[in-house]
Amino acid sequence: MSASSIKLEYAIVDVFTDKRYTGNPLAIVRVPASLKLTQDQKQSIAQEFNLSETTFWHEPKEGDEPNTWTVDIFMVNAELPFAGHPTIGTACYALSEFAQNSGADGIIQAKFNLKAGPVQLDYDVAKGHAKAAIPHNVHIHERTWSREELLAVQPALNGHVADIQTVPIVSIVKGMTFILIELKTLEALQSVTTTGSPMSVSGLDEEWKDTFVGTYFYVQTAGADGVRHLRTRMIEGTLEDPATGSAASDLAAYLSLTHGKPGQTLEYEITQGVEMGRKSDISVQVVLGEQSGIEKITLGGKTVPVMEGRLLV
Predict the structure, then answer these.
(1) Mapping DSSP to helix (H, G, I), strand (E, B) and coil, where does residue 297 land?
(2) Annotated catalytic, 53?
(3) Where would a tag sit more exposed on the chain, N or C end, judged by fewer CB atoms within 10 A?
(4) What is the rounded CA–CA span in Å between residue 297 and residue 313?
(5) SS3 64
(6) How far apart are CA 15 and CA 245, in angstroms?
(7) pLDDT, tens digit, 9 for 90 and up, residues 185-210
(8) Catalytic choice (9, 48, 53, 97)
(9) Cα(55)–Cα(36) distance, rounded to whole angstroms?
(10) 245-259 and 84-102 helices, crossing angle to 10°
(11) pTM (2 decimals)?
């Protein structure tokens, strides 16, 4: 081992669950205020963990705003401006520690600075539940995805999608885009598979085309007490994700814009990852503007710690 190696503390947590070994795993790397990691170092660490995302939780510097942290989010091959499960997972882990160290209880209010912008957080200490008012700039692309394109990558859906002509392509922010495919039955949802190659979609709107693109399949399972319940799966090429907060927010935003009324608040409970054996429970609240558009999107969920350790840089 090199004498110059730096040891960084890390944790792995399961997000959108309160049961270990379900939900979506996340690696959280604590970065001391005295240390500056390069982009290449962060990318290499994310590749080493080989999870869907790794976050770098930067300890505050002297003079920083109280209860405010900078968080960077990396996939194994790129940095993301925003992603839901890393935001909720890091919030639960960081604010749980803050509560233990400070003796705080009730609701803790805090903020993350992400590449996509500031994110206001509420953490319920007793429930271990975090809510994040996520950055959003919802854009419905002019281009849609055809049934032929869908069946080219999901041939097992042939016979389940006769009523589909086209499906929408929606960005929650620049850089995070999802093709939203509604299916009628859980049987159809179970027929979805990963594909042999990464997703590639041409013809997106010009200022929005430099983006991650995933396919998000959903079935509306129930709606009671003003809450819509959905079952979902997120596929991006060879990857299936157990819980995708950005996709859940994207879908809730689209459904609210197309079915809601100005000034209305809509609630969604989304269950993902069942087919993978990693059930995840995601809550989303969408507040529509009094005249038009979306005023606020709040993503919520729980997190459970799985392991802790040190890594060498």
Answers:
(1) strand
(2) yes
(3) N
(4) 37
(5) coil
(6) 10
(7) 999 999 999 998 888 899 999 999 99
(8) 53
(9) 15
(10) 110
(11) 0.91
